[in-house]
Amino acid sequence: MHTIKNITKQELYKTLSQRFETQEKKLSDIPNPALLHDAPNAAKKIAQAIRDNKKITLVGDYDVDGVSSTAIMVDFFRQIPYPLEAIIPNRFKDGYGVSPSILQRIDADLVITVDNGIAANAAASICKERGIDLIITDHHTPTKNLPEALYIVDPKLEECDYPFKEICGAQVAWLLLGLLKKELGLSINMKQFLDILAIAIIADIMPLININRTLVKEGLKLIETSSRPSSIIIRDFLNKKKITSEDIAFAIAPRINSAGRLEDASIALDFYTAPDTNRAFQQFELLGQLNTLRKETEAQTTQEATHAVDENALITVVAGEGWHEGVVGIVASRLVDTFAKPAIVLSIENGVAKGSARSIGEVSIFKLIQSCEHLLTKFGGHTMAAGLGLLEENIPAFITAINASAKAINPQDFIPKESVLGILNTEDIDLKILDLLEEFEPYGEANNRPSFLLQSAEVVSIKLMGADKSHSRIEVRQHPHQRKTVELIAFRTVYEMPADKKITASYKIAKNEFNGRITPQLLVDKIY
User: Fold this and answer.
1) Rounded Cα distance, 412 and 403, in Å
2) How confident is the model at residue 418 (pLDDT cuts 50, 70, 90)?
C-alpha cells in the first residue's frame, strides 16, 4: 500500500465537498422528460390506447429496478384508473425481458417494456407480425441493431438528448409517466412515487450525483413518511429515525431481489403494490425467508466457485453444473472482492450456460463480452455488470477469447476505485464526525462513504457475534499509550487473534442507534 497520511475533520470536509462540482439540484431541476428521444410520441401513443380502450400489457424485469419500474407503472394506472396487465418474466421459465416465450402468453394491442427490451429483436419481430404495437423503455446500452419497435425510449441511444444519461429503468418509466399524465390532463402527483424510485436507483447502483442524488434524498425522506403500505413496512423493519441509502442497499434491496432470484418476482411486486399493511407484511416476511435461502445458496456456490478460479487469468471465468442461476451475479461480486479482477460466473444446465458478470475499476465488462459476441447466444448490460448466455461447448473458447481481449486494456484500469482517504485520530471519531459525514449523504456509487485506515493498531480483544457466530467484534487501541479503545465490526468474518496482536484494516464509520443512544460504529472494509 502507498503511504497514507493523517487526515483531520477539516480536511475530510474539504475532500468530500470537492466531489460535487455544482450546487445541489432541486426536484425542479430535473431535465424535461420530453428531451428523452421519442418519449413524447410514446406518451401520445399510450394516451391514445387508453382513450380507445385498447388492451395494454406491461413487461418488466425480475431485479429490483425492474420490479420497481413495474410497481410505479401499476400504481399510476390504478390511479387513472385503467386496467393494465403487468407481467414480470420468470428467470427460470421465461429468461430475461420481453422474449418470444413471454409473447406466447400475451394477447394485447400495445406492449410496453420497462427496464428491458433494448436487445429484444426477436420479440419485436413477433409483435410486428402479430400487429401488436411495441414501446420499449430501457436504460441499458444499445447494440448496433435496434429492435423494430414503434418507439424506443432509452437515454443511452445516440440520438437521445436527455442531458443526464446515468438513470435507471424506473426513472425512464417515471419520466415517461410524467408526460402521459400531461397528455391525459391528470392531477396525479408524481412525487408520490419517489419512495419506490429511490430504492431502484440505489439497488441498480446508479451514480449518486446530479439528479440521482436529489431523487434519492427526497425518496428516502418519503419512505419515512409515506402512507404506502410497503414503505410503512420498510420503516417499521428498519426502525430508525433517519433511513440511509446503505440501509436500502444492504437490508431492503436484497430482500426485494430475492423473489426473482429464487422464485418469482411477483412476490416483490405484490409487496410494493399491496393495498394494506397486512398484505405488505405477509409479502415482506416471505421475501425475508427467500433472502435467507438466497444467502445459504450463495455461500455454498461462492465456496465452489472460489476453488475453480484460475488466479493467473486477467478475467475470472468459472462455470458449474447445477449452480443456482439466481445467485451467480452475487457470486461474481464476491469473486471480484476476493481476487480484485472482473468475474463471470456461469451456471450450466443441459448443455447451456447462463451467467452474470461484474467488473472492477474502469474495465467495461460489457465491451469485453461484446468482443466475444460470436461465441454467445445472448448478452446485455452496462460497464460494471452484464448478463450472457452461451453453449457449454463454447466456454473454453470464450475464456481464451475474453482473456485475449483483456490484454489490450491498460493495467491501471484494473485498480479498484475504492481508496482510503487517510488515517483518522481515534479522538476524532465522535458524534461530530457523524454529523459531518451525514451532510454528504446519500452515499453509494460515485459518492462512496469514505474509508479510513487503522495502521498496526493493537488488538485488545475479539468477540464473535451473530446467531451463527460468523461476525467479529474487534476491540483495538490505535497507539500503545492510549486509554481509549475503539471497536471494529467485521461482518461475515471470523477473525482470530494475530500472532503479533496487531491489525491493519480499512473501515467506514456508520451511525449506530441502540436504545435511543447514538454512537459511531466502525465497519471493517478490508483487513490487510
Assistant:
1) 16
2) low
Domain borders along the chain are 12-21+31-286, 308-414, 418-527
Query: Using the 8-state DSSP alphabet, how is residue 118 labeled?
Result: T
As a whole number of angstroms, the distance between CA 200 and CA 171 comes to 8
Distance CA 439, CA 244 (A): 12
CA 148 vs CA 69, 118, 169: distances in Å: 22, 10, 20
CB 369 within 8 A of CB 386: yes
With cell 418488466, the residue in question is 60
418-527, CATH topology level: OB fold (Dihydrolipoamide Acetyltransferase, E2P) (2.40.50)
Task: Look at the block and give the residue holding cell 404495437.
Answer: 133
CATH number belonging to the domain at 12-21+31-286, selected among 3.40.50.300, 2.60.40.10, 3.90.1640.30, 3.40.50.2300 = 3.90.1640.30
The fold for domain 308-414 equals Diaminopimelate Epimerase; Chain A, domain 1 (3.10.310)
Strand order in the sheet with 110-114: 85-87, 56-59, 110-114, 133-137, 151-153
pTM above 0.70, yes or no: yes
Tell me whether residue 333 is exposed, middle or buried, using C-beta atoms within 10 angstroms of its C-beta: 0 to 12, 13 to 18, 19 or more.
Answer: middle
User: How would residue 351 be classed by pLDDT, with cut points 50, 70 and 90?
Assistant: very high
For 398-408, how does the pLDDT look when each residue is reduced to its tens digit (9 = 90+)?
A: 999 999 999 99
Q: Is 95 exposed, middle or buried (0-12, 13-18, 19+ CB in 10 A)?
A: middle
Residue type at 112 in one-letter notation: I
- Find the distance separating the first CA and the last CA of the chain, reported in whole Å: 9
